[in-house]
Amino acid sequence: LKSIDAAIEFGLFKNRISGEFAYYNKRTNDVLINGGISPSTGFGSAYQNVGEILNEGLELSLNTINIQSKSFKWTTNFNISKNYNEVVSIGSLSADAIGGGTNDTRIILGKPVGTNYLVRYYGVDPNDGLPIWLDKNGLQTKTFSLDNRVAVGKVIPDYVGGLTNTFSFKGFELTT
Questions:
Q1: Are the C-beta atoms of residues 67 and 73 closer than 8 Å to each other?
Q2: Is the pLDDT of residue 98 over 70?
């Protein structure tokens, strides 16, 4: 299976409270990746269908009718989702051969799409005022080197959500 989607929808109290709880798991194959190619082609890179990405997550939405009369209605909509994202394959490309982003954000096998790939900053040496960096092994150094870059975080948030209130009065509507 490449994709699983399952959801439960519900409504309570004549649908004054309704919502949905959903789970998804999807593997996307042949993802377009801008990868390096032989310079003899006259180009430095080309889009290739070589990637595979896993997305798995949960979504919850709740809708309520808080007040309802002939001339006034107040509704609230709330949603939240959590997505797990992982690069499963980049074909024969290496992380350094993949273009795009700012080069501080990488597509790295086994990590989420948009992994921050940076030299870690430790602080300032109070004796000489020079910056202190961490090498790949987490040891302090005063020598900055791009060779000490490691995966330090991701650009995709752990949770995404929203809250909307809608007020309707005699044909006028305000949404916040």
A1: yes
A2: no
